[in-house]
Amino acid sequence: MTLRRAPTSRDVAEAAARQRRVVEEVLSRGVARYGCPCEWDRFVQWVGKEHPERSMDDWQNLLVRAAAGLPTFRIGPPARPEWWLQDEWLCVRCGARWKHYSEEWRMMAYRERLVREGRPAPAGRMEAPAVPGQALSPEAWAEFMLGEPSGT
Ligand SMILES: [Zn+2]
Q1: Could you give the 3-state DSSP secondary structure of residue 146?
Q2: How much is the pLDDT for 152?
Q3: For the chain, which ranges sit under pLDDT 70?
Q4: How far is ligand 1, taken at its centre, from the CA of residue 97, in Å?
């Protein structure tokens, strides 16, 4: 019988880097397919998810941060202040408007949320399948987002 060793900080850093790569890959494939992410239902729903108390979603945080780097978004200050509203995004390709919230829900821990205006994400509906008690694997998440096996 082999004992599983406890993860080291290096394992954790590698897993985080891998997760970020998967998010960037999924995002670029989705944008290649749809032209921009605004009509990509799973993107709209994942980035717009609300959270139960005391939880956050790394996938969502990474996806919102990666999307901020897309050339299709012009990002500007909010027209009207709102609690946790960070900035407003305009898609120069299709004209969709988004609101980006960044909530400090714990000291120095933020949950990012991106809400498409005029098309709120259904609350808590589309969760990728995860094995109970285990973190969502990058493969499962990518497959869910793209609706096909990821090949990464
Ligand atoms: Zn768009």
Answers
A1: helix
A2: 47
A3: 1-3, 120-134, 148-152
A4: 8
Q: How far apart are CA 148 and CA 144, in angstroms?
A: 7
Determine, yes or no, domain membership for 93.
yes
pLDDT (0 to 100) of residue 112: 94
Count of domains observed in the chain = 1
> What's the gap in Å between 94 CA and the centre of ligand 1?
4
CA of 36 to the centre of ligand 1 (A): 5
Q: What is the pTM of this model?
A: 0.85
The pocket of ion ligand 1, defined by CB under 5 A, consists of: 36, 38, 91, 93-94, 96
Distances (CA, A) of 123 to 46, 49, 50, 114, 129: 10, 6, 6, 13, 17
Residue 7 lies in a domain: no
Domain of residue 105: give its range: 12-122+138-146
**Does any domain span residue 40?**
yes
C-alpha 32 to ligand 1 mean position (Å): 12
6 found inside a domain: no
Look-up of token digits 């749809």: 34
